[in-house]
Amino acid sequence: MTKGRATVIAGALLAGLIVLGLSVGPQGFGWGDGGALAWLRTPRVLAAVAAGLALGAGGAAQQGVFRNPLADPGLTGVFGGALFGLALLLGLAPEIAWQNAWVLPLAAFGGALACSALLVGLGGGGSTARLLLTGLGLNAFTAAGTLVIAARSGESRELLTNGAYGDWLGMATLELAWLPALLAAIAALSLLPLAHSLDLISFGEDTARCHGIEPVQARRRAMLLTALAAGAATCLVGQIAFIGLLAPHLARTLAGPRHARVLPLAGLLGAALLLGADTAGRGLWPEAPLSAAAVTAVLGAPMFIWIARRRDA
Amino acid sequence: MPEAIITVGGLGVQLGAHRVVDGVSMTAHAGTMTAVIGPNGAGKTTLLRAIAGLVPSATGSLSVGGADPRQANAPTLAQRIAYAPQLPASAWDFSLQEIGAIAGRPETYEQWLVRLGLALPGERRLSELSGGERKCAHLALAFTGLADPFGRALLLDEPGTSLDRTKQAALHHVMRGFAQAGAAVLVATHELAFARTCDEVIVLSEGRMIAIGRPDQTLTSDVLETVWGQA
Q1: Contact call for A252 and B92, based on CB within 8 A
Q2: How far apart are CA A74 and CA A190, in angstroms?
Q3: Strand B59-64 vs strand B33-37: parallel, antiparallel, or unpaired?
Q4: Which of A38, A91, A279, A288 could cross-link to A149 by cystine, CB 3.0-4.6 Å?
Q5: pLDDT band at A311 (very low <50, low <70, confident <90, very high)
Q6: Do the Cβ atoms of B168 and B160 come closer than 8 Å?
Q7: Is the ipTM of this complex over 0.90?
Q8: What is the pLDDT of residue A163?
């Protein structure tokens, strides 16, 4: 497949899935009278597309920074940190959270950023094993923290538990979703200018510097934007792994590893994957819908093992 | 006397408890080739990285093309210095064409590949190359970074390792060409035969400079015996 064509096909696939996503729901197939049903489903579709875009592009950026195809923000604790940030806010000061729309994304961004910093400080610059084990530890800690807060805060308990299972798409409203969706799109687009730096960082920091790139600066910007993407996506979906792994891997397979191709294509594929998973989860079993996180994990976990095995071979 | 490109005075690098480079002083002039030799762990790589401005904690005086590379920003550094690491690696499986595009000058990159004896289709990916071919792909990336070699520093860390005889000869020819174009070429190497063809040789052992000067003055049986324990 020629490289430009992959992006066009992914865009067309996403457009088709958007139409499908607007047509499927518990009220049956179709857009309803004057598009009333489609309008009802718009926030959910918007949230899935924006979150998937951020997850795909953010995953590709984090893998570029760590020079490692297994560095999915969902597995390295960055999304866990975002949810923990939300849990802290909802557990400690729920009234502030619901009065100002921008406080929720800010808390998620803060949590993701803190975990990114810990990941770089404790797990960076070493082996794949060290990176993933540090992420595993961060994930376990933030997940436990989220559950502890959920158990102690009566009103937010169900909300936070659903978030931990990546099951928030169903409650998306335009009022709640527009700001995180905008931030997700901004984060994903702002990663694009880093493509050349990430290409050169692939050859190591010494080589990057000798070709005119400041690797520390580029890495810091990429991590900051990935944390923003993770925070925004978490506000929309809750915690969800494997999109940030699957989408960049598919993008590299289809269009080669240059980041100018991988970042936008991984964003489009991430959006298509998340929207497809959400639509399948509620369309195939309307009486007992599956969360998008469950569907993506069924696809993503075997892929993770496959990439890990190939890497060691 | 031609212009001094690299000037190093009392250079020291401490890594943990270990003094990896200790009091190295040397000068490399435009149009010359200098070989840095010494056993494994003598400090050759660290010396080259320090001169390339990649070891900010290096002490002593250091000047490349009239400025201290430790203070230089990356774009300035990239204009003055080309550096090829000993064990280059890429996180992703780029094709030769893609590496040329990343280097910013695809035609120049392709020319360097041909000059190094690697005339392969541009679609060929790194994973499809042998160890020596891959080394050439990375060397060409470093060469492409140096738009105009005049008055610049070319720092190569064991560039000939894993190359076959034909590619080694091509590499020697390319390095000589850089020197003739006015660069100061500094090469860490284990090839004594190649070192004998250089203008100057620096012998390192345990971070210290044992000898410096013309090959016939430095590659003496005394020095070889002191450093390697055999002549």
Answers
A1: yes
A2: 20
A3: unpaired
A4: A91
A5: low
A6: yes
A7: yes
A8: 86
**This prediction's pTM:** 0.92
pLDDT tens-digit readout, A71-128: 888 888 899 999 999 999 988 888 888 788 789 899 999 999 999 999 888 877 667 7
Spatial CA neighbour of B37 closest among B209, B149, B203, B164: B203
* Facing B73 at nearest CB: one of A210, A214, A252: A214
- Residue A52 and residue A266 in contact, taking contact as beta carbons nearer than 8 Å: no
Which residues of B are less than 8 Å from A252 in CB distance?
92
Confirm or reject contact between A220 and chain B (CB < 8 A): no
Comparing CB atoms, the residue among B85, B93, B98 nearest residue A206 is: B85
**H helices present in chain A, as ranges:** 3-23, 36-66, 78-92, 94-99, 103-118, 128-152, 157-164, 174-191, 195-201, 205-210, 215-237, 243-255, 259-283, 292-312
Beta strands in chain B (DSSP E): 4-15, 18-29, 33-37, 59-64, 81-84, 153-157, 184-188, 200-205, 208-213
Q: Which of residues 63-82 of B touch A (CB under 8 A)?
A: 73-75, 77-79, 81-82
- Per DSSP, A159 falls in state H
The CA-atom distances, in angstroms, between B31 and each of A225, B28, B159, B199, B206 are: 46, 9, 19, 9, 29
Calpha distance B82→B154 (Å, rounded) = 5
Asked if A209 reaches chain B (Cβ–Cβ under 8 Å), the answer is: yes
Residue that is written with structure tokens 């866990």 in the block: A80
In 3D, which of A33, A57, A115, A1 has the Cα closest to residue A271? A57
Contact list, B71 vs chain A (CB under 8 Å): none
SS3 B204: strand
- The shortest CB-CB distance from A256 to any of B77, B95, B138 is to B95
In one-letter notation, the amino acid at residue A115 is: C
Q: Which of A202, A210, A256 sits opposite B91 (nearest CB)?
A: A202
**Would you tell me how many other CB atoms lie within 10 Å of the CB of residue B150?**
13
In terms of DSSP H, where are the helices of A93-204? 94-99, 103-118, 128-152, 157-164, 174-191, 195-201
- Rounded to the nearest angstrom, the gap between the alpha carbon of residue A312 and the centroid of all alpha carbons in its chain is 26
Amino acid identity of residue A75, one-letter, is: L
A contact test, residue of B64, B90, B92, B141 with most A CBs within 10 A: B92
Given an 8 Å threshold on Cβ–Cβ distance, is B141 in contact with A258? no
Out of B54, B79, B93, the one facing A206 most closely (by C-beta) is B54
The pLDDT tens digits of the residues spanning B95-149 come to: 999 999 999 999 999 999 999 999 999 999 999 999 999 999 999 999 999 888 9
Contact pairs from chain A to chain B, CB under 8 Å: 72
Query: A75, A115 in Cβ contact below 8 A?
Result: no
Interface test with B, best of A206, A217, A254, A265 (most B CBs within 10 A): A206
Cα distance from B95 to chain A (closest Cα, Å)? 8
What's the first-to-final CA gap in chain A, in angstroms? 26
